[in-house]
Amino acid sequence: MSSTTTLQLEENGNAEDKYGMTHACRAIKSGNKDLVLAYIKQGLDMNYKNSVDGVTAFIRACNSANIDMVQFLIDHVRNLNVNLTDRNGNSALYYSCQYGHNEIVHLILEKTKPKVTLSTIEKALPMMKDSVMKELIDHYIGDMNNNPGELVNVIAKGPASLALLQYVSTKTSDRCNVLDESIFLSACQSHGNIEMITWLLNDCGYQSIINTCTDSDGRTGLMLAVLRHAESVVELLLAHGANPYIKDRGNMNAVDLANTSYDDGADYMRIRDPPDEVVRIINLLTKHGNHQN
C-alpha cells in the first residue's frame, strides 16, 4: 500500500463534500482500484447512500461507464446491493440502460441479481442492443410478481424491433394473451414501429378490427396515432382501411382530434397556426375520408 493510499485511508471513505461526493466514490470515479480495495478491506460500507442525492458507490461506478470498476466492485464487495436506488428512485441498472452502457448492463444481469422494472425497460428500449434487451426481458419475466401483459404493451409502444416484440410474445404466451387488443393500440402510439404494426395488421388479424378495436375512451388506433402526431403510422392505418370519421366517447373523430392535438391550453383563441406535421396529418385524414365517402 502506497503512502498516499495510507494517508487517504485515515479519512472516512464515506465523508462527503458539499455535492455529496464521498472519498470512496471519488476513488471509483478516478479508477483508483488500490484505494477502493483498501476501503473495502477496512470494512467501509460500500452500500452507503450519500445525503445529497442518495447515490451509492455502485451507481457511481456504473454512471462513470468504467466496466472494470463495476466488475471490481462485484468481485470484491461481498454484500454489494445492486438494487439500491437514489433519491429519484433509480438504480444502477436503470442509469446504465438510460446511458446506453450495453456491456455494463450485460455484466450486471450476468453476475448479480438485479430487479428489472418496466421503467428500466422503457429507458433501455432506445439505447440497448436487442441481445441485451432480451436479457432484460428474461430477467423481468423470471420474476413471477411482474405482469407480462404490461411488458408486451411497453415493447409495442416503445422504439422496439418486430423481432423483439415476437420474442416477448413467445416468452409470455403462457401467461397472457399476446393478441390482446391493447397491444395493437400501444403499437399505434409509437412513431416508427411500421414493421411491427404491419405484422399485427396482416399476420395477427388486426386489420379486420381496425375500426372496432378501441381503448376505454372509445379511441381507435388511428385516433391514438393522430394524438401522438405519428404521421407514418396514420398513413399506414389509413391504407389498411382505418376510418377517420368514427367518433370516440367524447364525440370526437380523428380529424377533430388532429385539430385540437397541438393546443397546449395557452392558445385557446386558436391564433397559432397548427404545426406542419398536424397539417399533413389532417390532409391525409380528409383525403382518405373523401375517398371513403
TrEMBL record:
ANK repeats lie at residues 217-249. The keyword Lipid metabolism does not apply. Pfam families: Ank_2. InterPro entries: Ankyrin_rpt, Ankyrin_rpt-contain_sf. The keyword Repeat applies. Keywords: ANK repeat, Repeat. This is Ankyrin repeat protein. It comes from Adineta steineri. The lineage of its organism: Eukaryota, Metazoa, Spiralia, Gnathifera, Rotifera.
